[in-house]
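dude i think i finally got it to work??
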Amino acid sequence: MKWVLRNALGVVLAAYILYQARKPGRWVGRLLLRAMNEGHSQMTDWGLSHVAIGNSFVILDVGCGGGRTVGKLAAVAKDGKVDGIDYAEGSIAASRALNKEGIEAGRVAIQKASVSQLPFANDTFDLATAIETQYYWPDLPNDMREIWRVLKPSGTLVVIAETYKGGAWDKFKWPVMWLLRSSHLSVSDQRALFEKAGYEDVEVFEESKKGWICAVGRKHRVKCHSSTGGC
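look at this
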């Protein structure tokens, strides 16, 4: 009987931790967010090295989690602004706490929102980032298009993840991701997803030894009219 109870408690605890990883709460979730901030930092730097970030960029971080990426972006776009969104209360609280100075200076804003319905006008952002979050989006084609909507012409979306179909360590990581009800995209799947949503100049980078992936796509550029000379 004790063995059954121990195993039942173990299953419940594992399920709770998995839930917190997907949608962090204010207590246990915040502990996980701290670990994620540290664990994903090197991968984030690698992924962001594939995009240019201007000093005055207006940037959106989708699924801002513990707020580490928001801080990195704000440190580069010193004359710009960074908006972070997340659907989890724990993530919002942690991200606001970590970026308190940026928020007080008016250079950072964090709010609760869904990637499926972004609370921003069309053509707002120069850059959108999504670090370790695309797995959990409820409607990938629609959500990719929603980000496309809020990007400026020539704006860029970069998606960075530590596991993908066919990547190194995937066979070990995928069972956990499956339990989290995550999407499971290959390099070709990712490219097709970007292109179907309307992104151009799509590039997909791999860090083969670590199993990281970085996909980058741009919103269409405004084309100049040769007859008028205007754009």
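The first strand starts at residue 58 and ends at 62.
im so relieved honestly
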